[in-house]
């Protein structure tokens, strides 16, 4: 069998993707009337008016099916593949010499041949549609939730499985996916004029139904669902036909193909002639069929390998999904890795994936408030000791050898917002709640970069905002003596995680400004960090939770928790006014008034009668805080721009910092020595 390495395969896909970008991804610039169609010889067409391949006889199909079983394919796979093959005799030959494709965790045997489009279905769980899925965690009325899968059994296998509640549930989800693809990735005119140029990736999957309806073995496109969806739209096929009718009624399936391939376009009137030419071009697709997966690494199964393969094509260029689709695909891979490593049990996995309804989550003792749902995801997945597993899941579906901290937090934050995005997709585009959900995504993802989320073992406790505030204020006092102790941060971080949900939704925390040279370029996570170090910030965070849960815009309070009153001036800006009403929390107020650039994290006060151990703990905490502040200052320094927009230090540099660097190296050496001492003292 031919060996193909992943590097070579990626380069082949790169070249092919560049070709398909030219052939399939552009809008046709010709007027599709009869005269243009007749005069467009310069436009490539797969079949034009040439004869299509003759449809194979049933006996040839049966021989090909038997050949499939002879090489170890399940009977239903062999039969479906034989009926879909344009040339069953070619299929019989290819089955004897499959190509070996190296993928994450194992090897896939594959063959390349032409298939009839009516014999395929777009994979119902296509990741391109993830941003429009409505998950049960959203609690939306009338939505059952997405289909489950694809999944597979451990070990060597040829079959994936996808599960729905019922036939009607499957059809509802597949129709939603069809509508989404046709609105976002419409290739109808390109395929109708030129055919499908790039091979699609085909797998066998079993479509299961929880209500007891018989399962359906189907050939689905793990990659290429947009092309197949558009081609089937040109052919006039329905979701019910391709998922349920054709697989059980092969005679009707063959009649549909025979009508298109057997009719002579020259015998038809102009309109019917043009329609038939379009359908002929859409009838057949080149395909790479995955026959069998054999694992070579523990913890990998067929479903994970296929997701990794498809992710290589779409999460990174050349043919990317949307940003949300990419992050969702990576999040799914992360959850699979954590469940495979037995870090998550099935209920918690399903909760984090948004697959439990609010009622099911409550019954399982899990949070149901929207801000608590999101915070639970952060607390569960941002932990430093999960980092390696999270990065492994992300690497599975990307071509990256390493994963940045920013990418890791973005993936987890996207998963945290899954219920919120789900409910938003069911609302009118002008609905204020949907607008808030759209607006909060970028700043929420940035807030999640707060480093302490990963280094402190905090959790969601279900305490009221007032109880959390009291605990956080106590931590602020205790933290003066031992600022690096985890116990000095757990309540403050829970408060921050809940509040960032509402502050980002209502505009109280926004992504760093772009463009203006004089704007504050700090990220919202840096503002959030400063808020955790004083009473004003903690009171503001608590008030944001109270108001956000009441579905009102969060209001400003002072360090005593009293509302800041004001009124709008002629320019629309809030000004303090004792006779006014509570002013809203605004990003500009936090950035330029409450925590202006250059704000230093407060230095802990020396406690009276401190012991040597207490003093050492206090000094270590002060050093940690000053280093953290130095990081913030370096970030701010890196963003200083000249009037023309160029970054000042990128042009001028930093002259002769050698003495400073020597001091930093000495500090690094001393702390490293103490770290080694601590390691030697460990049992």
UniProtKB/TrEMBL annotation:
Region: Disordered; residue ranges are 1-40
- The organism is Streptomyces millisiae
Biased composition annotated in UniProt, kind: Basic and acidic residues: 1-18
This chain belongs to the protein called Uncharacterized protein
Annotated Acidic residues bias: 19-40
């Amino acid at each position: 069998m031919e060996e193909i390495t992943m590097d070579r395969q990626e380069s082949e896909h790169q070249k092919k993707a560049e070709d398909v970008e030219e052939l399939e991804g552009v809008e046709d610039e010709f007027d599709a009337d009869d005269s243009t169609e007749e005069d467009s010889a310069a436009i490539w067409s797969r079949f034009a008016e040439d004869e299509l391949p003759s449809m194979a006889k049933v006996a040839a199909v049966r021989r090909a099916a038997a050949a499939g079983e002879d090489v170890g394919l399940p009977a239903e796979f062999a039969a479906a593949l034989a009926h879909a093959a344009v040339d069953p005799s070619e299929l019989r030959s290819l089955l004897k010499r499959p190509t070996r494709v190296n993928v994450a965790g194992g090897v896939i045997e594959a063959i390349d041949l032409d298939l009839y489009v009516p014999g395929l279905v777009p994979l119902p769980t296509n990741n391109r549609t993830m941003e429009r899925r409505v998950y049960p965690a959203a609690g939306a009325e009338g939505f059952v939730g997405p289909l489950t899968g694809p999944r597979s059994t451990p070990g060597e296998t040829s079959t994936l499985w996808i599960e729905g509640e019922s036939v009607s549930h499957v059809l509802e989800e597949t129709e939603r996916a069809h509508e989404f693809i046709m609105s976002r990735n419409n290739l109808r005119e390109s395929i109708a004029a030129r055919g499908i140029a790039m091979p699609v990736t085909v797998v066998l999957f079993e479509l299961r139904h929880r209500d007891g309806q018989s399962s359906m073995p189907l050939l689905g496109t793990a990659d290429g669902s947009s092309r197949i969806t558009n081609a089937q739209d040109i052919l006039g096929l329905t979701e019910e036909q391709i998922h349920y009718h054709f697989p059980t009624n092969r005679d009707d399936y063959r009649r549909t193909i025979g009508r298109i391939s057997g009719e002579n376009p020259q015998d038809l009137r102009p309109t019917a002639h043009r329609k038939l030419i379009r359908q002929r071009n859409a009838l057949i697709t080149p395909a790479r069929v995955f026959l069998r997966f054999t694992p070579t690494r523990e913890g990998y199964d067929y479903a994970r390998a296929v997701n990794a393969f498809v992710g290589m094509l779409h999460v990174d260029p050349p043919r990317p999904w949307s940003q949300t689709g990419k992050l969702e695909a990576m999040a799914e891979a992360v959850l699979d890795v954590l469940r495979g490593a037995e870090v998550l049990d099935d209920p918690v996995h399903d909760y984090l994936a948004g697959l439990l309804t609010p009622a099911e989550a409550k019954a399982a003792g899990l949070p149901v408030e929207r801000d608590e749902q999101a915070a639970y995801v952060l607390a569960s997945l941002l932990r430093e000791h999960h980092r390696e597993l999270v990065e492994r899941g992300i690497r599975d579906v990307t071509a990256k050898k390493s994963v940045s901290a920013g990418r890791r937090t973005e993936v987890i934050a996207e998963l945290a917002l899954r219920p919120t995005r789900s409910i938003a997709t069911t609302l009118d585009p002008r609905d204020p709640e949907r607008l808030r959900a759209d607006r909060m995504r970028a700043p929420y993802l940035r807030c999640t970069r707060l480093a302490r989320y990963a280094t402190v073992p905090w959790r969601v406790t279900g305490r009221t905002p007032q109880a959390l505030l009291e605990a956080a204020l106590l931590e602020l006092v205790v933290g003066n003596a031992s600022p690096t102790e985890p116990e000095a941060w757990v309540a403050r971080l829970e408060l921050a995680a809940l509040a960032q949900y509402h502050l980002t939704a209502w505009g109280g925390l926004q992504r760093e400004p772009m463009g203006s040279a004089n704007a504050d370029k700090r990220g919202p996570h840096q503002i959030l960090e400063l808020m955790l170090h004083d009473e004003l910030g903690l009171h503001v965070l608590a008030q944001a939770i109270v108001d956000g849960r009441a579905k009102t815009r969060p209001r400003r309070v002072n360090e005593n928790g009293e509302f800041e009153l004001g009124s709008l001036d002629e320019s629309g800006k809030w000004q303090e006014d004792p006779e006014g009403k509570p002013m809203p929390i605004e990003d500009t107020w936090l950035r330029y008034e409450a925590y202006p650039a250059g704000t230093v994290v407060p230095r802990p006060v020396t406690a009276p009668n401190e012991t040597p151990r207490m003093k050492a703990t206090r000094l270590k905490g002060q050093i940690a805080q000053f280093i953290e502040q130095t990081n913030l200052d370096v970030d701010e320094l890196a963003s200083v721009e000249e009037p023309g927009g160029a970054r000042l230090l990128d042009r001028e540099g930093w002259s002769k910092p050698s003495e400073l660097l020597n001091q930093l190296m000495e500090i690094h050496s001393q702390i490293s020595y103490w770290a080694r001492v601590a390691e030697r003292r460990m049992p």
